Amino acid sequence: MNNREYLRVRIPELAVLYNELPAGSSPPFFLGFGERREPPVERDMPVEDPALGAVMESLATLEAKVDRILGYLERQGALKPPYAHQGQVVDISGGGVSFATLSLHPVGAYLELCLIPQVGDPRPIYAVGKICWVEPAPEKAGSAAHHVGVKFVEIEEADRQAIIRLVFHMQRKEKERRSVESGAAQETAEPEWMEGDPCRRKG
């Protein structure tokens, strides 16, 4: 189990598409999670060449992503929508996500997630998460909305790192915005101080 601590940031520019997995089921194979095929015997042998090891790791990751694509194509061929629910992310970290949604799900349910960034790297991020809590969403999100907190239980490390980079990107943007606003406030305040009558400020 991953018990690392992660920075969390509020991020409105992120949508989430998801399905609730049936109770007692394992994550679908096409996600690249859960039950996997047994690797060939050759892969169990140690790889002395670092470059060859990196290539083999990349091929394994590519294989998992191809499995996902095939799963999506199978669903579309069966005229089923890839995801039944959608939500708007409230905040996110490398360890989990919370979002507002009109759909109600029980605590403890597992979700198959697809996160779609609108800033930074636009590639979708896939994960399986477990609902830890559900509460009413803020009024601005709609009276029928629910605020759902989800902990990632299955996610590729590359996708987790993409989330962490996104968090730092949004934090940097927020700091820049605050710096600009602070500078603008000082610029408007200083001329007023300089042009005012100093005698009046002495009381």
UniProtKB/TrEMBL annotation:
Domain PilZ, by residue range, is 85-168
Query: Which superkingdom does the taxonomy of this entry point to?
Result: Bacteria
Matches recorded under InterPro entries:
PilZ_domain (IPR009875)
MF terms (GO), sorted A to Z:
cyclic-di-GMP binding
Where in this protein does the record put region Disordered? 173-203
What is the name listed in the Swiss-Prot or TrEMBL entry for this protein? PilZ domain-containing protein
Q: Which organism is it from?
A: Desulfacinum infernum
